[in-house]
Backbone:
């Protein structure tokens, strides 16, 4: 990722295939913390704490417009997903602050529950909504964008703009796919591919065939991940699809 400062236009927030920023979010935060136990005892003059070996990830988004547009509006994305049972389906989130550029960083979160959904009404203003998420599961904080969010109308790949990790890695990783819109195609299969020489690429992760948007998927792989990574989207028929993809090495 290029070094430097980034402004608000560089933000990314995708949730289960919803481009949340389309609802004009005014601020968002991503926090990782080590859970601490209070170890203060009698005779201590100051509070003492010790890490318990767990991490907590929370994401907060504020000031989005309260939008009830069918299938794509923020209200559809948030209101039905506040968990009410232990069996509630997890959510898949991709967020970043450095822009939609191949090779730039993003955070991937699987298991981001909407723990609060707050709708705000005020005089002389449009209704707004705030959402807080708590991660239960994996947070992949070292992701690299392979396919910035873009609309495609035929099969394509990014091998000419592959992401160079400088060396291979041996501990696998996690791939993310987010689709915000799709129409016309009878099938679509996204793949993350890897290469040792930036010439010959092989499949690393194959995502589920899906053309019903919005949708998102996280898939993991073990073992060696070669130095170079790319994304291939294979579409069947005539239509268009808008997708984002990235990979985080473990």
Residues:
């Amino acid at each position: 990722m290029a070094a430097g400062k980034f402004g608000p236009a560089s933000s990314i927030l995708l949730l289960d295939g919803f481009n949340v920023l389309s609802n004009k979010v005014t601020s968002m935060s991503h926090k990782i913390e080590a859970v601490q136990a209070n170890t203060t005892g009698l005779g201590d003059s100051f509070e003492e704490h010790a890490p318990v070996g767990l991490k907590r990830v929370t994401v907060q988004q504020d000031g989005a417009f309260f939008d009830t547009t069918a299938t794509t509006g923020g209200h559809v994305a948030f209101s039905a997903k506040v968990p009410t049972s232990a069996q509630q389906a997890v959510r898949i989130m991709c967020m970043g602050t450095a822009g939609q550029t191949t090779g730039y960083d993003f955070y991937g979160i699987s298991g981001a529950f909407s723990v609060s959904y707050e709708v705000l009404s005020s005089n002389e203003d449009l209704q707004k909504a705030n959402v807080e998420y708590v991660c239960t599961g994996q947070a992949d904080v070292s992701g690299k964008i392979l396919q910035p969010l873009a609309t495609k109308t035929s099969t394509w790949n990014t091998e000419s703009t592959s992401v160079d990790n400088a060396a291979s890695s041996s501990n696998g990783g996690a791939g993310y796919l987010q689709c915000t819109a799709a129409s016309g195609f009878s099938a679509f299969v996204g793949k993350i591919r890897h290469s040792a020489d930036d010439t010959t690429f092989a499949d690393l992760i194959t995502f589920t065939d899906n053309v019903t948007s919005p949708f998102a998927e996280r898939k993991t792989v073990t073992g060696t991940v070669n130095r170079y990574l790319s994304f291939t989207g294979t579409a069947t028929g005539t239509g268009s699809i808008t997708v984002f993809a990235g990979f985080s090495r473990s």
About this structure: The radius of gyration is 20 Å. The chain is about 0% helix and 55% strand.
